[in-house]
Amino acid sequence: MIDFVRNVRLWFSPAEVRDDGETPDYRFSLANERTFLAWLRTALALIGGGFAVDQFLPDLRWGWRVGLALALLASGALCALRAVNHWVRCERAMRRGEDLPVSRFPALLGVVVAGVAVVMVVVVLLGWEA
C-alpha cells in the first residue's frame, strides 16, 4: 500500500522518478511512453463507447442502457488511472534495473469488455425492448 501511495505521488511529479536509479536507454523510456498513450487511447475508446450506448440506444431499457454505459465509463476511467500507475512503475523498474512489473489489470479489463460485448450481443439478438 505504501508503494501505491508513493506511485500516486509520483504521478504528479514525474521529475522525481529521475532520482531513482540510473537513466535507462531512451528507447525504453519512449516505448514505455507509447504504451502509456496506447492505454489512454483505450480509455478514451471505452469512455466514448459508454457515451454512445447511453446516447444512441434510446430504445434500450433504461436499466440495461445505464448499466452498460456505466460499465464502459468505469472501465475507461480505471484504464486511464492504470495507465499512469503502470507508466510510473515501469519507469522506476527500468531505472533500478529490475524486472518490469506484471499486472492482472489487462485480464480484468478484457473480461469486463468481453462481458459488455456478450450482453450487447444478447440485447441485439433479443431485440431492443427485451
UniProtKB/TrEMBL annotation:
Residue stretches making up the DUF202 domain: 27-93
Cellular compartments annotated: Cell membrane
InterPro entries from the UniProt entry: DUF202, IM_YidH-like
Organism for this UniProt entry: Actinospica acidiphila
GO cellular component, one term: plasma membrane
One Pfam family linked to the record: DUF202
Protein known as: DUF202 domain-containing protein
Membrane topology: Multi-pass membrane protein
Residue ranges of the TM segments: 36-56, 62-84, 105-128
Keywords: Cell membrane, Membrane, Transmembrane, Transmembrane helix
